[in-house]
Amino acid sequence: MALWYLTRAAGAVTLVLLTLTLVLGVLNVERVASARFPRFVIDGWHRTISLLACVLLALHVGTTLLDGYAPVRIVDAVVPFISAYRPLWLGLGALALDLLVAVAVTSLLRARVGIRAWRAVHWAAYACWPLAFVHGLGTGSDVRAGWVTWLALGCAVAVVVAIVARLADRDVTPGVRAGALTALVAAAIGLGTWLPAGPMAKGWAKKAGTPAALLGGRHATTARRTHR
Amino acid sequence: MTERLLAGLPADGPIGLVAHEALHGPVPAGGPSLIEAVTASGLRGRGGAGFPSGVKMAAVAGGRRRPVVVVNGTEGEPMSAKDRVLMERVPHLVLDGAAAAAQAVGAREVLVCAPPEVVAPLHRAVAERDRRRGTPRVTVHAAARGYVAGEETAVLAHLEGRPPLPRVTPPLPAQRGYRGRPTLVLNAETIAHVGLIARHGAGWFREAGTASRPGTMLVTLSGAVRRPGVYEVPVGTTIEELVADAAGTVEPLRALLVGGYFGAWVDPDAAGLALDDTVLRAHGAAVGAGVVVALGASTCPVAETARLATYLATQSAGQCGPCVNGLPAIATVVGRFATARTERGDGERLTRWIELVKRRGACAHPDGFARMLETAFGLFREDFHEHARTGPCARCHAGSVLHLPVGDRVGAAA
Lengths: 228, 414
What we know:
Chain A has helices at residues 2-29, 39-66, 74-78, 87-108, 110-113, 115-122, 125-139, 146-167, 174-197, 204-207, 212-215, 218-227.
């Protein structure tokens, strides 16, 4: 039981750390700095916090696997959409994990893989965050606990602001800018319609693909009590 | 008598080939046995890193493609003059070593990279030697300017016609060096020692120096001593003996900068201080490129540290973020101690920021910068506190003993 709480908490903290990492990464690209906080310091934070996010993610995945409640196997954590437990929503998390591992490994081996390959892979960070975000909302047992949703939405606002700032940069071509802005608007509309009808509505656990055996179980009862 | 490299040096000008061979005798033809001899001699690189030369030679000889030998006489270290002196005055010893090393590793080509002012004397020396069958072709190239231009991968880049910028290793030059070939890059002094080991053997080499660090070494001594210059001493010579060789000091000493600008500030009164890495390690220092700068008591150590930090910050090759952005930011804060009022938390900020640049470069430039500053903060702690309290001191604007070349900035890469 404690593990299941730890899983959820570690997931939420990972999202916050990924958000900070992304925002700091954009700050760095945009050369936002001052005498007190020069670029290499902000870069240092980006690096440290991203590594911390990896540690928390390991905790998140590790506790999920160790906890006996949800039937999640190691392979489900890395191969998307094959899990017996909420396959789609867990799969998004697996996908986010794969991308984060790719980004982290190429960063640690940047000297060996070369700057071009590193940069190409590093773009995947922009895909990693939304996947992790939707995974959190879709899989999360905590969306109906108000403050978790607010935390997630706060992270989303921070990321949107950072991405808009990034898009304002002169190195972004008009086509990319228009495409990215359209995607942002579409994502906001999608989130606005999906969230109230999906994770925030009653019966989401069943709809999301939770095995029937778990729905009437001890944990589900506890979870319901917690969420009221 | 410990002079080996500088033995029989005339008052001025280079030693000609005839005099040279009369002095040292002819070089026996080198073969693979020279690699064993160099390994057995315990010779370590004299350019700064102190890597065992025999290991390098064996690695190069074991490569699949035909190797190249590069004599690194770039000497980007502003306080060092030993390689220049050696190549200008004793060029044939350097060329002997290069030829013997080339034959030992199976190279047919030797590239000598030397400061522009010694290119002409080296050319004359090369022309003096007859090219017998089996001896390698030697070409002399003017070195690039800038502090990091002497780093071995930067030297290779320069020889290949690219900007003299260090690159990430591995692959090491011994694996993939000049034009992708296995390359033996040895400092000019190191290769001159090889020239003597080829003649006299490993046992002879070990007659000088210590058991773990054998041989003699060239030291460039400068600052508050009566006779600054290049000295040849056995490895392990004490600083006291070295200073005595230079006819003593002109004033009481406040500190010694040992190794080079990437080196360490050391307390001159520390007991048993000697030119031996195993001794210097306890003081956070290393013999490095054999540089010793004596800082007199009339000079402000804070101001000297700040000037040095500023200079090193300008010498970043411009490739790695923490070096490009970090070094100038750190140097600015250090500079505040010597030129203006410090801000709250500056001391703590420096300690934190220095951690952020260590091991974050393609080359060791940020690490050398960090070592120099950290040893300065350790040794000059009181002076830094004093400057933080009361601002710049009267000695801050006194002349510097440090040579800080202007306009040596390496072209920044994208």
